[in-house]
Amino acid sequence: MRVPLELPPAPRYQVTLEATAFAAPRRVRLAVEGVPLGAFTVTPDGYRQYSVELPGALLPEDGPLWLTVEAGIPESPATRGLSADDRPLSIALNGLRLSTP
To answer: CA 44, CA 59: separation in Å to the nearest integer?
Structure first.
């Protein structure tokens, strides 16, 4: 998933995702313009917050900053024998927050 963000200049931002995983832990990686920010494991036991730092030096001088969220290999409930639902699922994202520490 790629998200365009318009941010004012700052020394750094904290990027916080509130997420839960489908059926099994999922390795999630965040990047900006191809530069890795960090990775964490999202678990399937309810929504939790996960944070990484975004250095201000990565903010573009003009135009949006593109945040990429890679959430592992998706699986469908059908392949797990849970239902007939064949949609590929990985994580459920309840919120994305950017803040200055």
So the answer is: 32
Q: Domains in the chain and their CATH numbers?
A: 2-99 (2.60.120.260)
Per-residue pLDDT of 8-61, as tens digits, reads 999 999 999 999 999 999 999 999 989 999 999 999 999 999 999 999 999 998
Whole-number Cα distances in Å, 35 to 27, 74, 94, 100? 17, 23, 24, 20
Give the HSE-up count for residue 31: Cα atoms under 13 Å, Cβ half-sphere: 10
Q: Which two tokens stand for residue 58?
A: 């990565």
SS3 58: helix
pTM comes to 0.88
d(CA 50, CA 60): 24
What Rg do the C-alpha atoms of the chain give, in angstroms? 15
Q: Could you tell me which residues are beta bridge partners of residue 35?
A: 32
